[in-house]
Structures are given as structure tokens and as C-alpha cells.
Design brief:
By secondary structure, the chain is an all-alpha fold. It is built from 21 helices and six strands. Strand 2 and strand 3 form a beta hairpin. The longest helix is centred in the first third of the chain and has 49 residues. The radius of gyration is 42 Å and the shape is flat. The C terminus is likely disordered.
Length: 605
């Protein structure tokens, strides 16, 4: 799964960077959508495959209860789906900004003979992104020889948030658009296929077994059923367009030619069609898949909401549409589900709570990768929103920053409170007008480069080391570290604030309302009190609560005592009868008979 996912991502990189794909539908403009769409389809396919594999593996474990079986299945399924579903976005957010090389870029090489790095960005279209042609920096005009052709505009690197948004749109909006209708289409196609096989087998048996006598019997049975239907109305509806509600025209419209095999086939087929139609429906698979899809959707919204804030609204619309589709599926497309009770949602609750806590860390890390947060919040906060006019200036050309030279403000490199100086250390050559690619990069350049890399690398083949400066490199490196330090502190404070807010909401809004907790406590108290009163009234209750083994032994002991008592009574009666005959006194049995006679006499009186 991970290998195929990386293959799709590397293919998207080639579509963006390599000019070979410019004349095809896989060009750089649609590369982001192609990669996101292919990843979405692959994720859906692997989720279905592994879910069935997990069910098969879980059935071999022979769990003791249904709850243990479902909990183990949830763990197996969700661990895989976390990697499969969230892996592409995590790679784009955390690994893609590092520029890894995937699969040696499939043998493709850049103009310098190296493999392509997987980077984020888009093809530039402004004059400062043009290379290999003459550019007038004062007017921003490009010479006529520099058109919008291959290799003339470089690939400008940015943060990966745009790519994450596209991937989130595909996961949250596009994925339900084809998965939800399939919940109706697939059962309907399977039912029609089963009905077709059933009709073909029925037709074959009918043609083989139909005889004149059987046809006559079939006609008589059909007439009786039709007459019954006419008497009770049109509620049965077995005969379709051939039926009527009037008994006067029954013979003309209902009785076909007895030799018509098609009519006989239709009549016999309708006897059991309704039951067979129900049997041909697909059994309802239970609520596991429904919970699974919603938990995965909750993960998308909770873990990556920072890059796609309207994802919750899109998910709400998708869920409303899926609600109506599920109603249609349960009512008409699958067999009637059996009732299955449950105490709660099971391990799904723990899964969602875990994702809710992990989402705090993930969203904070995502914010750390945002260039927008850095340029428009962190750096202005560091310089106390100091304006450009307040920046220190200089007349020495070697100390004027590229922005100061381009804008005419002559801002000095030495100003530590100027926001433009911090932004310059993070700027990309070819992404801003004061760092034009035609000035800082050679003609073979195909993507932008960090201005700090040009200052620090003396052997760079892209600029031939012409812009190398050790002092400026040290200044920019220090300023970068300062910005990262401030960003880390702000995000740590934000993380703790979110955790505190979450704990406060959890404390202020309990899972159970107060009145419900009090009601349950009262019921438990009354039940315990009733059990105590029952024990007080029946001291032998403890003995009756012993295990099944002791109960069986008591039953065996009781049976033995009863047999011993009966044997003793019979022996006593025999001895008393012998003694009675010898002494002339009545035996115990005779005394019992006399007592019974006396009781009868008393009753008569």
C-alpha cells in the first residue's frame, strides 16, 4: 500500500517538473488533481480489500464473545486504515517539504543530470520566474524571444498547504461521491444478476417438465387464484397488465391460450417470485462498515482541519446525502436486518477519543509548516509590526538588501528589527520580484532555489557560486533559527491552550447529564435495597446462589436421600406387618388405611 502510494506521488512529481508531459493531459496544471484523485481511488480499493482480509483473519482467532470479536476487528481494521487513509496527507505535510527522491524519479533526469526531487509548488507565470531570456527589471517586460514555452518559466517552490487542500477535497468530497452511490448500485446489480440466473434456471426446468396434463393443472390453479384475487381486490397484483378487477371480463383478459407456454411460465413464476426476490437481495452487513466510514471521516476533519477549515461543512453535506442513500438501501436494496442490541459503540469510542487528542499535536505541526503563518504572524510579532519605513538604511551597495535595491528603500542588512530582512532569509529565488530568476539562476534552471542556499553554497551549479557570501549566510542562518524558535514557542503555547480548553469543556459538559446520573444511581440503590430485603426474608438465598456444580451435587444428594427414605419406609412396613401377624396388632400400612377410612368418615359427617 505504501509503495503504490509513493509511486503515485512520484508520478505526480514527474508530471509537474518534467517537460515530457507538457503536451499530454498529464501536464503540470492538472498534476495535483491527478495525483490526489488516483490516491483517493487507491485508498478506497485497499480499504475494501483489507477489511475483508481482517474479517477473515479475525474469524480464525475464535474469540469468546461477540464484543471481543468486534473489538479485535476494529483494531485490525483501523490500524491499517490510519496508514492507508491518512498516509498521503502526512507525507505531503511532513516529508514532501524535505524534497525526497522517490524511485530515482523513474529514470528521468533534470537539466543537470540529477534525479527530480519531490517538492511542492507550481509553474511560475510572472516575469521574475522567467529564465533564459532578457528581462527588463525596471518595467517587468520580457523580450519577444521569451515566450510561455517549455523551460522558460521555472517551477516555484511553496509550502505544501495547497496540495494538502486538494487532497482533502478529494478525500472529503470526491470520495463520498462515488462510494455512497455504490452502496445502492452494487446490491441492485447483484440482485438483478441473481434474478437473471434464477429466471434462466426456472425457464429451463419449465421447458423440461411441462406436459399437457401439467399445463391443464396449471391453468386450473391459475383460474382459482385469479378468481380469489378478483374477490379480494387488486391487493395481490400478481398478474401485471394481464389482470383486471372485474369478474365479467376475466375470461377474455386473463385466460390465455392453454398452449401458450409464455403465459404458463409467467403464471407459475409469480407464485414464488416475491419470496425469491427477497432471497435474491444481499444480506445487510451490519453497522461495522457504517461506523468505520464515519470514524475515518472524523479523522480527516479532526487531524487535518488546519489546512482545510471548511472540511466539516463539506462532510456534513456528504453525510446528509448518505443518510438518504442508507434509508433507500435498508428499505429496498438489502434484506431486512435483524435487531442486534449493544451496550455502546464499543472500541470506536476509544478510537475517536485517541484521534481527538492526537489531532491537537498534528494540527500544531501543520501550522509549523505554513509559510503564511510565518510571514504574516510570527515575523510581524517578532518585529512588533514595525513598518518598512522604520527600517535602517545605508548607502553602501554591498550592505543593501535585494529588496532595498529593488524598491529603492536601501534597507540595510544589519537591521535586526526589520521584517523584510527576516522574510528575505526564507525567500525563494524566482518567487518574488526582488529575486528574479534571470539574475540569480542560470539558463538551465527548472525550479526555484532558496536565497539562503545561494548565499551559503559556493559550489552551486545553479548559480556558479556567484552569490556566495559567508557573512550574509551567517546572518540569515541566525535569523532563521530565531524565527523557528519563536514559532516553536508560540505553537507550544497554542497546544497547551487547546489542551486546557478541551479539558475545561470535558469537565463542564459531562458525558451524562446530572439528572441522568442521579436517576441511574437511584435505580442502583433501589435494586441493591431490594436484594438486601430479599436476603433478609429468605436466609437460604445464599445457598441457592451457589454454582452449578454444587447445585448438581445437592440434587444428587437429595435423590440419594429420597431413595434411602423410600427403602427405609418399605423395610419398616415389612417389619411391622410381620410383627403384626405374629402379635395380632395392625401393621403400619393397616394403621394408615384405618386413618384414611376415619378421615373419609369424618368427611361424610
Amino acid at each position: 500500500t505504501i509503495t503504490v502510494m509513493l509511486m503515485i506521488l512520484s508520478f505526480r512529481t514527474l508530471m509537474k517538473l518534467d517537460s515530457y508531459f507538457d503536451d499530454t493531459i498529464f501536464n503540470w496544471y492538472w498534476a495535483s488533481w491527478w495525483g490526489a484523485g488516483l490516491n483517493t481511488v487507491w485508498v478506497s480499493m485497499m480499504n475494501v480489500v483489507y477489511r475483508r482480509l481482517a474479517e477473515r483473519l479475525n474469524s480464525f482467532e475464535n474469540h469468546r464473545t461477540q464484543t471481543e470479536h468486534e473489538d479485535a476487528l476494529i483494531i485490525k481494521t483501523f490500524v491499517f486504515q490510519c496508514i492507508n487513509s491518512y498516509g498521503p496527507i502526512v507525507y505531503i505535510a511532513l516529508l514532501k517539504p524535505l524534497g525526497p527522491i522517490l524511485f530515482d524519479s523513474w529514470g528521468k533526469r533534470d537539466p543537470y543530470g540529477c534525479a527530480y526531487n519531490d517538492i511542492c509548488g507550481s509553474r511560475g507565470h510572472d516575469w521574475w520566474a522567467a529564465v533564459g531570456c532578457d528581462v527588463d527589471m525596471s518595467t517587468g517586460c520580457i523580450a519577444e524571444s521569451c515566450d510561455n514555452g517549455k523551460g522558460r518559466f521555472i517551477y516555484v517552490r511553496t509550502d505544501c498547504w495547497d496540495l494538502m487542500r486538494i487532497q482533502m477535497i478529494c478525500f472529503v468530497a470526491l470520495k463520498p461521491m462515488y462510494e455512497v452511490p455504490l452502496q445502492i448500485i452494487v446490491p441492485r446489480l447483484l440482485r438483478r444478476f441473481r434474478n437473471w440466473r434464477r429466471d434462466r434456471a426456472f425457464r429451463k426446468r419449465f421447458d423440461e417438465q411441462m406436459t399437457p396434463s401439467a399445463a391443464h393443472t396449471l391453468d386450473s390453479v391459475r383460474r382459482r387464484v385469479e378468481s380469489m384475487r378478483v374477490r379480494v381486490g387488486d391487493s395481490l397484483g400478481w398478474w401485471g397488465s394481464a389482470t383486471t378487477t372485474s369478474s365479467t371480463n376475466t375470461n377474455s383478459s386473463i385466460d390465455p391460450d392453454p398452449t401458450d407456454s409464455t403465459a404458463k411460465f409467467a403464471a407459475l413464476h409469480h407464485f414464488d417470485s416475491e419470496i425469491e426476490d427477497q432471497l435474491s437481495m444481499q444480506p445487510y452487513g451490519g453497522t461495522f462498515n457504517e461506523y468505520n466510514s464515519k470514524v475515518v471521516q472524523f479523522g480527516y476533519i479532526a487531524l487535518f482541519s488546519a489546512c482545510f477549515p471548511i472540511g466539516s461543512f463539506v462532510a456534513t453535506l456528504a453525510n446528509f446525502f448518505e443518510l438518504r442513500v442508507d434509508a433507500r438501501k435498508l428499505g429496498y436494496e438489502v434484506r431486512r436486518p435483524r435487531y442486534m442490541g449493544a451496550r455502546d459503540v464499543g472500541s470506536w469510542q476509544g478510537t475517536m477519543e485517541t484521534m481527538a487528542w492526537v489531532s491537537i499535536l498534528i494540527n500544531v505541526v501543520l501550522l509549523a509548516t505554513s509559510w503564511t503563518l510565518r510571514d504574516h504572524f510570527v515575523i510581524p510579532l517578532m518585529v512588533a509590526s514595525r513598518s518598512e519605513d522604520a527600517c535602517d538604511t545605508t548607502t553602501l551597495p554591498e550592505l543593501i538588501t535585494p529588496f532595498g535595491a529593488w524598491s529603492g528603500t536601501n534597507i540595510s542588512w544589519s537591521d535586526e528589527r526589520c521584517g523584510r530582512n527576516y522574510e528575505l532569509c526564507f525567500a525563494e529565488v524566482g518567487a518574488v520580484p526582488w529575486l528574479p530568476a534571470s539574475v540569480y539562476l542560470d539558463e538551465k534552471a527548472y525550479r526555484s532555489e532558496s536565497y539562503l542556499d545561494l548565499l551559503c553554497d559556493s559550489t552551486s551549479a545553479i548559480s556558479d557560486g556567484a552569490h556566495h557570501d559567508e557573512n550574509k549566510c551567517a546572518i540569515c542562518s541566525e535569523r532563521r533559527n530565531t524565527v523557528w524558535l519563536y514559532t516553536t514557542l508560540l505553537l507550544v503555547i497554542l497546544e497547551h491552550a487547546i489542551i486546557a480548553a478541551k479539558l475545561f469543556v470535558t469537565w463542564s459538559i459531562p458525558d451524562k447529564p446530572t439528572w441522568l446520573a442521579q436517576s441511574e444511581a437511584r435505580d442502583d440503590f433501589l435494586a441493591q435495597q431490594a436484594r438486601g430485603e430479599l436476603k433478609a426474608q429468605d436466609p437460604s438465598a445464599k445457598q441457592r446462589k451457589s454454582g452449578s456444580g454444587s447445585l448438581l451435587s445437592r440434587r444428587c444428594s437429595t435423590s440419594a436421600l429420597r431413595s434411602r427414605s423410600s427403602n427405609s419406609a418399605s423395610s419398616l412396613q415389612s417389619a411391622s406387618s410381620i410383627l403384626g401377624r405374629e402379635s395380632g396388632t395392625p401393621s403400619i400400612a393397616e394403621d394408615d388405611e384405618h386413618d384414611d377410612d376415619d378421615d373419609d368418615d369424618d368427611d361424610d359427617d
